[in-house]
User: Fold these one by one.
Assistant:
Number 1:
Amino acid sequence: MKKKGTSKFPKIIGIVCLVLVVTAAFLAWFVTKPWPQTQGELKVEGLKSKVEVIRDKYGVPNIYAENDYDLFFAQGYVTAQDRLFQMEMHRRIGSGTMSEIAGQSGFDMDLLSRYFGMRRIAEKSYQDLDDDTKAIIQAYCDGANAYIKTHQGKLPLEFTILNFKPAPWTPLDVMSFSNYMAYINALNWQYELYYTQVAAKLGEQMANEELPPWDPDNPEIITKDLEQYSWRKYLAPLTTQIDTHQLFQENFQSGKNDWLRNNSISGPVDPNYFMANLQQFGWASGTWAISGKYTATGKPILACDVHMGLFIPSFWYEIGLHGGRFDMSGYSLPGGPLILLGRNQDISWGFVNLNPDVQDMYIETLDNPSNPTKYLYQGKWYPLEKEQEIIKIKGKAPHVFDILYTRHGPIINGLLKISEKNLKRAKAVKKYPGNWTILSSSKWEKSEPISIRWTVQDGCITYKSLSLLNRARNWDEFRNALSYWDSLGESFIYADNQGNIGYQAATKIPIRAKNHLGTIPVSGSSGEYEWQGYIPFEHLPYLYNPPTGYVAAVNNKTTTDAYPYKFTYDWFHPGYRARSVVDKLEALIAKGKPITVEDMRLLEGDNFSYAAQQLNEYLAAIEPENEIEEKALSYAKQWDARFDKNSIGASIFSTWLNYLDTNTFGDEQLKYRLWGFAFPLKHIESLINIMKDPTNKRFDDVDTPDRIETRDDIAQRSFKNAIKFLSKKYGKDPAKWDFSRVQQARLYHPLFGRGIPVISSIFKSNQKLPFSGSPTSIAFAYCNTFPPKKFNVTFATTQRHLVSFGDIDGMLSVISSGASMHLLNPHREDQMKLWANIEYHPMPIAKEEVTNLAEDTLTLLPAAGK
């Protein structure tokens, strides 16, 4: 006889299983429905003729069209297929409308975009563009809009989570984000505020230590021996050198900065804000080209990698564009047409941040601080321009405010008001908590008004330059294209199929008054510190087929001090990586063996650091006090200054260096409520300099007034901190502290990255990979960890490409994630292992080779009657 109820159990199990299967099927459908169609045919309203989209095994598209309009229409359409939500983020960042979808977490970024006038400048810039470039931008928008219109029910998952749909794209959306890219490429205004504070609160000596002179052991791009092949052809050198330290002091005294002694200054971005890392565009990149007379093929080889904050997806979108007047392959920015880096049939190019000083800050005098209507200039009062801004914030009332403008630009005091929460966070960790943490809570409405002058405020037509660059066939056309490059400050490296190589600096750089360094805020009312125009393009540094047989730009100083114009006095990146590149290129040439693409691949992955080699001497000199310390120091003493994945010395040094920086600079940062240093690589250079002085005041801990610490005290303390950290996290046996466990890379979503844990975990990359490199090696890797909790790489190379005109594949490429942004898509992170292992995939330009690598082919056809 059956027991009562036993027959129901299998039914229950069956129902549960059915529910699970149905749920899983629904979730799979829900997640995959935004995936793009990549095979077959699609009829698309707006196209004029047939377009073919060929994708390789990594989902990288090559687009073939019959005319310019269809080519860029298809670029907008295909980019939207893979990266629509990234495009949406980019235009909202540029327009200052992130708060509409992200709520309060987007407010700081919107405030920045509004104060710097990204949209306002876009309107002027678009008016200044030629009709041909406008047509390219419009075609891109038309293609994106065609995709949006026909995929309202298949939008990326992020739109569903945030409960909104994208509006149609306009050319101003494209232009606004371009202006934001120019902003994050030029952050001198933050330097100005920081140095002024350090000088005011800690003294000029300490300010100068944080603005160290260029190390003569590190090369300029155009060295003294190369000047005769560059600017000396048309410019006379300076016969007397400027005493920059004396001029700094003069500027400081005359700049009306006394108010800074009682006020703190901070950057505009909350460290918890999801796009903070994006500010590091072009932070530490490298590009070089070697002449064909030294290569195995007899043709030049060009190498390039650009370093930025790490996200999934990568900032870059690989694409080939073939049709009409264009035939090129390379890297575009989702949200804009053309390619920014890459090659065409005749030339190739790469670039790094030139780091010119294109911003200045002025302390203004207003008629009525509580309700100003006029500002003072050379003894006369002039009316202030006022513009009302409204920031819509999801879930909150709109933020309405006015921005006032002088002849120099917007008054930005309202941008710099930061809440107390960051100060509390800093106090919680007791020490310098990180380069993005803001330690200020000033009441800026009581401070004297600061305005900012920026070259981009005059408008920029960089998209015209980009269009000409994409079509350039030789050195002259390349330079002509760059003569219109007027927003991002870049050092371009060039190579062509005729065997030529070259270098060109490009952007608008102001000519300052003789008594104006541009390193600190100065008086806006006196008229003494006005710009005298811009350096003519013909006077900007260049090189063409130099006798060295190579050209290289690695964020290093552009020229010697004999160059009569001054780009900047605050080279934000020390020149150790540049020294590595130059030394290794010259060593390859000296060997006399033909140089290959493989040699350039190995060079891009080289992780030796001259800076680490110098600083490690102080680590190795520490006296151990127990067995663990003794064993750890044995690894440090044997270390070769290479940040290999299997290195134990790299783990010990990196952790010690993090604490050394914290213990040296952090006490003053916190006590005097200075803004956290925005460019920590400068601290490495400062450390190298002040470590030579055992009793430098920077080593004295202001939190221990009963004693005076020296260099050796701080080095010892930092070592003990490091050993404690490594022992707790990886065990007490230093033999197990290999670098592959310590430094790893995991990519996070740019919006959901570190927010709600459940959503964050869904959208982060599945892979977490060991990652070699350091902030001062050619293979660049930076971990934003102060004090160190974990060494997750937050800044690194986000793309690499190698171009050899003598090889059939033509170009090798890799990006940090994959072509797609869609969750679970096979191309979302399929390049991560290649990227972490310094490997590449072919990205040919010839259609025959593209077809040979084809995995999917989609044909786009004009809709009926169109």
Number 2:
Amino acid sequence: MRLSAVTRRSFLQMGMVASIAAGGISASTRQALAETGDAGSSASEVKRVRSCCRACGKMECGVWVTVKDGRAVKVEGDPSAFHSSGNCCSKSQSSIQAAYHPDRLHYPMKRTNEKGQDDPGWVRISWDEAFQTIGQKFNEVKERYGGPSLFCMTGTSRIWCMAGIIGWPRALGTPNTMHAYQVCKGPRHFATQMTCARAFSYLATVDRPSVYVQWGGASELSNYDDSCRTTVDVAKKAATHILVDPRQTNLGRMADVWMNLRPGTDAAIAMSWAHVIIENKLWDDLYVKRWTDCPFLVCEDIEPSGWTERYDMTGSPWELKTKLLKESDLVEGGNPKHMMVWDTLSDSLTYFDVESGLWEGETWKRPEAGRPAPQKNLVPGVAPGWVPDPTPFNPLIDPALFGEFEVTLKDGRKSVVRPVLDRYAEACAQYAPEKAEEITGVPAKEIERAAIAYATRVDPSTGYGNGGIHYMLAIEHAGNAIQNVRSIDALTMLTGNMDTPGGHRGVTQTPIAISPTGGDTLFAADVPGAPFPDYEKTLGYDKFPMSKWFGGFADSSSIWEAIETGEPYPVVAGICQSGDFMNQGNALYSWDVLNSLDFLVDADLWHAPTSDAADILLPVCHWLELSAPRMSQGASGAYGATCQCIEPPAECRWDPDVLVGICKGMGVPFLPDDEANTWPDKDWILDDSVKDSGLTWEEYRDNFQKNGWLDAKAEYPEVWGTYRRYEMGLLKDGKPGWKTPTRKHELWSTIMESHHPEGTWNFPTFTEPQHSPVSDPERCKEYPFVITTGRRIPVYFHNEHRQLPWCRELWPVPRVEINPVDAQRLGIEQGDWVWIETPEGKVRQTADLYYGVAEGVVNCEHQWWYPEINQAGHGFELSCINCITDRRVQDPHSGSTNLRAYLCTIYKATPENSPFGNPVPCGKDGTEIIHTSDDPRLKEWLPTYEGRK
């Protein structure tokens, strides 16, 4: 059968056969792995449990855990885990030290001393007392001030503790959720929801794009979707590897092109690439004309108008108003949802109908012609997926992308209109490579070379581009997060890399729950819990109108300010679940405010900095001690499970049980419509999380243990195994198009235009960071270095693992990378402790001389604290780089705080300028931090197997 003649129906039939065949090929291997785990278990008490490592963020590496006599003794990669290539890293190995760490929290505890004291006076209490106390306190706050006076706080989470996103707000009756999502993935999801569909920032790296663009992250070490061995292999097999980063990453040393840009100038690079692509006519003509708003016509002579849309989160209405030309602008009584374009074939106007998703005179039938995706370097074991053939215009039209066209408005006035792409090309021309070089420091020839390599198709026969762009965390941290994302999204739009093999696909779709507590499934929208609170009161909506449209979080800075000032209403109590105050804003300010709360609950594994401000501590389980479903939050298509390997210590509980227990303590039904099961147990929650798979949790877990990780492309070919879902009517209302108001991939954002009618941000734009050498030259005189930070560290993940002996031995102190030329000028040598200072404060880290950062740039490490320092806050103020940020500088749309690309000075720490006459950071009593690999205190953290009962 010829590939070009394969229909949708025949593809599905072939897919079943291929899936069976693939299972036959790998079944013996998978069965052998499962049998190995059982062999001899009755004699030696040894078993192997297949699971999912959660020692870092959202990268779900498949692992085998060997358990001997009830103790975990080994963690190794699972070959069935195609998305992690059967590998796992040092953080996986160190998980055993975390699970058996002597400093684990074992029991609920309450504070008996005043806040701010180094000794909180913790006293052990029962879970019943903890739940009763918390419920009473929270209810008192709700009765006195209202639900919004409570807040919930979560960090990077571990899936089972994602209740801070939806579960806690429902339980507490508050819209105020503070979590790392605001500075980590959230802006990418925010921007792509505006331009095409939520989270279509995620790249299908398992498809191995032909050109790999690594933008703003060291995904070879850790990442929020695919990382480590997976991305290393992608880079090695790509025809071209491009690194866009002010720091040369480990993997970036092998890149064909390194674009060493000044921190915070990402959008200037992206718009320069767009200029090169447009000038060289490298855009995907059919996709751009048919599926984007690029041919829509901009009319400056009309008042913005449109129709009523509704906020996704609340359902409340908002008015879309745009200067894009509509039939209603031309004809009295015309349809406002008929978006006008200029057809060059007829030399006249025609329209696209937003309501139906069809062009004038067009009819639609879901496409059936297509073929299995031709992917030369596909990861072994991954289904290829099915690519529908591109749908041509029928009847045939050719919408103009450039030019000026005269139209007659309904009031008789003549007006000259231009296509959206023509306007954007004009904006991008301001960032031609020569101009972009002046802004970013990247040579013009390198900008042009990279853009052409990315946009010129390696294999034109595929019918799609070379792949998307692996853009990561850094672009969200320079005070211009949303526009940065949009500028990069525009590149993937122009080159036809949306929902294509190796392109941007969004979050993996399967019938299992994203989270057992508060996440939703992709096949069922309802989530257990109390009704949603009034989101109109969400803190930060007044400062950031677009945040109300997105509805994904409250603004962290606004929450801190409300706690401090009581305005616009008091916030006096809250709960933190695997979060912290150090991940955004200014950590010193946040710490002071946190300690002023009337009541704070912290659920965690450890005595961490946040716990020192808490009134009640709740001990929770480590990933080796619990079960939960797991699907890729990225686009790998992998799904499986975390499966309990060992018993938790003492009275540690699974996070969903904590949520249910507090609901019960407050008298809030977790399942309000189920009187017989108002507060469900763990078994019910786990069964519910996989119910749409048709299996119970036990059946799902057993299948996973036997057969390994599942590929959603093979298991659900009509949902995840199909590319170009915008062609198939799978993204919005069963009709063709993207999930935007116009059903188009929007370059000119009608959402942004409606919320900011001044028109400044209709297109992606470049804005200088607020404290840069260009925008703040006076500050630059005293603070001449540009900070970047937040890089991945092989043995740590954000603020985690500082108390694990293996990790701390390998990386005992924070490092600031500085160019050797700068270091020599300042008298700084390798390993010296140095002060890093801004007008907001100063901290110390050790100098790491590295030519991989440019002169005038320093790369600092983030979220350091010292578990060995026995005082309130555990010495975070000594080295946490977010102690020196300007908390008032935020992205104007998402509120993401300015964590990179700001100015500092750096100088050597000496006995004369250091407390206690010691350049090494010390606690209040002069005790040095652990700063060498042979510090005997590391041995105090070695695993202990006693006291877990």
